[in-house]
Specification:
The complex is a heterodimer of chains A (473) and B (146). By secondary structure, chain A is an alpha+beta fold. Chain A has helices at residues 5-8, 11-51, 57-81, 85-111, 115-121, 124-135, 138-158, 167-172, 176-250, 256-289, 300-314, 337-353, 413-416, 426-436, 462-465, and strands at residues 2-3, 296-299, 323-326, 332-335, 361-368, 385-392, 440-445, 453-460. Chain A is elongated. Chain A starts with a strand and ends in an 8-residue tail after the last helix. In chain B, strands 2-1-3-4-5 form a five-stranded parallel beta sheet, sandwiched between helices. Classes of the chains: A alpha+beta (473), B alpha/beta (146).
Chain lengths: 473, 146
C-alpha cells in the first residue's frame, strides 16, 4: 500500500475525508435498514402472489421490482461496509428508484392512471432527497429531479387511462403534469437551498473540528514527547550514576580491567545522553533555521558515504549489515550538503534501528527526468529530480499509524513499549529538511514484518535547478 | 566491602541492559545480595519459579508483561503474595505515582536511583513487608471470629 503522507494532512483533504465519513455513515445506516424493510415487503408480495396467483402481469412486475430493489439494497449495504462509497450510493438510489417506480408502472399499465398512481407519485420526492443528501452535490439533485420528471410525464401522458377515475378528466385538462413536476421541483429546490445554506455551515463546523483535533493531537504529542524524553533521560542518568557510585565505592579494591570497563560504561552512557539532548535541540533549531541555508551543488554519493560513517558508531550493529548501494557517483542535487547528510543519516539510522540484526539495507539513487506523478511542484517549468530510496527489511509501518509518522514527537506504540531508543524526531526532521530544499519525502510499507519500509526522498537535480541562483535565500 | 545482607536474594527486572548489568553488579558487590536478573516481566516470572527471592525490584515500562502486571501476578498468587516488591520506574508523573502506590507494591522509587539508595530501599521494603505481615497476623488473631 502506498502512503503519500504529506497530502493526507492538508486541511482541505481532511475536510473531504470528514465529508466522506459522513456520507459513509449515512449509507451504512440507510442501506441495511432499507434492505430489511424491502425484505419484508418482498416477502409480503410473495405471499400475496401465492394466495392469489391471478394477478395482472404488470402487478407481478411491480413485485419483481421489489425483489430486484431488495437485492440492489443488499449490494449497497455490502459496498458501504467495504467503504466503496460511490458504488454504495448508486446502488442505494437505484434500489429506491426501482422500488418506488415499479408498483407505479405496474399499477398504471394494469389498472390505468388513477388516484392511487397519483398518490404513489408523492413518493418520487424520496428519490430526489436521497440522491441529493447522499451525494451532497447540486448537479446530482438537479439531474435526479429531471429524471424523475421524465418518468412522471411518461406515466401521466402515455399510461393507459383508468376509465373509472376522475384523473382522466383532470389529465385532459392538463393540470396534473405541471402539478406533479412543480411539486418535484419544489422538493428539489428545498433540498438545494438546504444544502446551499448548510454546507458552508457544515464546512465551517468541520474546519473548527479539524483545528480542535489538531490542537488536541499536538498537545497530546507534546505530552507524549515530554514523557518520552523524561523516560529516555532517566535511564541513562541512572546508569551513569550507578557506574559512578560503583566506581566511588569499589575503586580501591576492584581489578583494573573491571575498573576500565566501568569507566567505559559510564563514558558510553554519557555519549548517549549527549546525542539524545542534541537530537532534541536539533528539532528546535531546524524549526527556526530550515529556510535559511545556502543552496549548492551536492554530490549524493559523497554525502551518502559520510552519512554511513556517521551512523556506524551510533548504531553498533550497522557494521555487520549488508549495505547494498546502487548510487551513481556523478548524481548531484541542488540543495545543501549538511541538510542532505542529516536526512540520510536519519533514514539509515532508522533502517538499522527498526530491522533485525543481519538483515540488509538498500540505498538506491537515480535521476527522475520529469515530475512524475505530480508529487513535487514548486515552480514551473519543473526541474528534473533525483530520487534517493532507503529500504530496510524490518517490521514495516502499520498502515493505520502511517499518517502520524512524519509528525514531531511521533513514535509508533510498539516502539514506545520496546527498548529501541528514539525521541520521535528523526522523520519530522527528514520531512522538514526535504521540504526546505524543495523536495518531497514519502514511504511505502505494507506493515507486514519482514517486508520492511521503503523511504523515497525526491530532491531537485543540480543540472536543472542550479541555473537560478536567486533561489538561495 | 563486607556483605551486610546475609544471604538475601534479590530479583532485578529491567528492560534496560545497562541498568541491569550495573545494578546487578552494584547490588551484589555493595549490598552483598545474591542477584537474579530478568529483562522483562515474563522472564521475571520464570525466574520466580526457580528461586524465591527475598525482594523483587521491577521496572514498570517493559515489553510483554509490564511492571504493574507482574506486581499483580505476584500479589495474586498465595505463594508469592508476601514477597516485598519495589517498583522502579522512569515515569514520574503524579498519576504514575498514584498507580504505583495503588498497585500493592511496598515501595515506589523514581529513576534515577543510586545503588546505595536502592539497597536501602530494598532493606526498607523487606522490613516493611515483615512488619505488615506481623500486623496482619495480629489482626487475624484479635478478630472477633476467634
Amino acid at each position: 500500500m502506498s502512503q503519500n503522507v504529506p497530502t493526507a494532512t492538508r486541511g482541505e483533504d481532511m475536510f473531504l475525508e470528514i465529508e466522506r465519513q459522513r456520507r459513509l455513515r449515512l449509507t451504512r445506516f440507510l442501506a441495511p435498514t432499507f434492505a430489511v424493510l424491502l425484505f419484508f415487503i418482498a416477502l409480503g408480495d410473495g405471499f400475496a402472489t401465492i394466495i392469489n396467483p391471478h394477478r395482472p402481469l404488470l402487478t407481478l412486475l411491480g413485485y419483481l421490482g421489489t425483489g430486484i430493489s431488495f437485492v440492489l439494497m443488499v449490494v449497497a449495504a455490502y459496498a458501504a461496509q467495504r467503504e466503496r462509497i460511490n458504488r454504495a450510493i448508486l446502488a442505494l438510489v437505484m434500489a429506491t428508484t426501482i422500488f418506488i417506480f415499479s408498483p407505479s408502472l405496474g399499477w398504471t399499465f394494469s389498472q390505468g392512471v388513477d388516484p392511487t398512481v397519483m398518490a404513489g407519485m408523492m413518493f418520487y420526492g424520496v428519490i430526489i432527497v436521497l440522491a441529493g443528501l447522499l451525494s451532497g452535490r447540486a448537479w446530482v439533485t438537479v439531474a435526479t429531479t429531471l429524471g424523475v420528471n421524465a418518468l412522471s410525464i411518461f406515466i401521466l401522458w402515455y399510461g393507459p387511462q383508468n376509465p373509472d377515475s376522475s384523473v382522466v378528466n383532470a389529465r385532459e385538462l392538463g393540470i396534473y403534469g405541471p402539478l406533479v413536476i412543480g411539486a418535484q421541483w419544489g422538493i428539489a429546490l428545498i433540498l438545494l437551498t438546504t444544502l446551499e445554506v448548510f454546507t458552508p455551515a457544515f464546512r465551517e463546523l468541520g474546519e473548527v473540528q479539524i483545528a480542535y483535533q489538531r490542537a488536541q493531537q499536538l498537545d497530546e504529542m507534546k505530552n507524549q514527547f515530554i514523557t518520552n524524553v523524561n523516560h529516555e533521560l532517566r535511564n541513562p542518568i541512572m546508569a551513569l550514576q550507578g557506574s559512578l557510585e560503583m566506581l566511588l565505592l569499589t575503586h580501591d579494591h576492584a581489578a583494573p580491567g573491571r575498573l576500565k570497563r566501568m569507566i567505559e560504561e559510564a563514558a558510553r552512557t554519557g555519549d548517549d545522553l549527549q546525542s539524545l539532548v542534541e537530537g532534541i535541540l536539533d528539532a528546535r533549531r531546524i524549526d527556526l533555521e530550515a529556510n535559511h541555508f545556502t543552496h549548492e551543488v551536492v554530490n549524493v554519493h559523497a554525502v551518502l558515504m559520510t552519512s554511513v560513517r556517521l551512523v556506524s558508531p551510533r548504531e553498533q550493529h550497522v557494521i555487520e549489515r549488508d549495505l547494498r548501494m546502487h548510487v551513481p557517483e556523478d548524481l548531484t542535487i541542488w540543495g545543501n550538503n549538511l541538510l542532505l547528510q542529516e536526512i540520510l543519516t536519519n533514514l539509515l539510522s532508522n533502517a538499522v534501528k527498526y530491522s533485525p540484526p543481519g538483515s540488509p539495507v538498500e540505498v538506491t539513487c537515480f535521476a527522475v527526468p520529469t515530475i512524475g506523478e505530480g508529487r513535487a511542484h514548486r515552480q514551473a517549468p519543473s526541474p528534473a529530480f533525483v530520487e534517493i530510496q532507503v529500504r530496510d527489511f524490518g517490521l514495516g509501518i502499520p498502515p493505520e499509524q502511517a499518517d502520524l509518522l512524519f509528525n514531531r514527537f511521533a513514535r509508533l506504540p510498539r516502539d514506545l513499549a520496546s527498548t529501541t531508543i528514539g525521541n520521535g524526531l528523526g522523520l519530522y526532521l527528514c520531512k522538514a529538511l526535504t521540504e526546505a530544499m524543495g523536495g518531497t519525502i514519502w514511504f511505502d510499507s505494507t506493515g507486514v514484518a519482514g517486508e520492511g519500509t521503503l523511504f523515497h526522498v525526491r530532491l531537485p537535480a543540480a543540472s536543472a535547478a542550479s541555473p537560478s541562483p536567486t533561489e538561495s535565500a | 566491602m563486607s556483605p551486610v545482607s546475609g544471604n538475601l536474594t534479590i530479583l532485578l527486572v529491567d528492560d534496560d541492559l545497562r541498568i541491569l548489568q550495573i545494578f546487578a553488579d552494584a547490588l551484589a558487590e555493595i549490598g552483598g545480595f545474591r542477584v537474579l536478573t530478568a529483562q522483562n516481566g515474563l522472564e521475571g516470572l520464570e525466574r520466580l519459579l526457580d528461586a524465591r527471592p527475598d525482594c523483587v525490584v521491577i521496572d514498570v515500562k517493559m515489553p510483554q508483561i509490564d511492571g504493574y502486571q507482574m506486581a499483580r501476578v505476584l500479589r495474586g498468587d498465595p505463594d508469592t503474595a508476601d514477597i516485598p516488591l519495589v517498583i522502579l520506574t522512569a515515569m514520574a508523573q503524579e498519576q504514575d505515582r498514584f498507580i504505583g502506590k495503588a498497585s500493592g507494591v511496598d515501595l515506589y522509587l523514581t529513576k534515577p536511583v543510586k545503588p546505595t539508595a536502592l539497597i536501602a530501599a530494598i532493606h526498607q521494603a523487606i522490613s516493611l513487608s515483615a512488619a505488615d505481615r506481623v500486623r496482619r497476623m495480629r489482626d487475624l488473631a484479635e478478630s472477633p471470629g476467634n
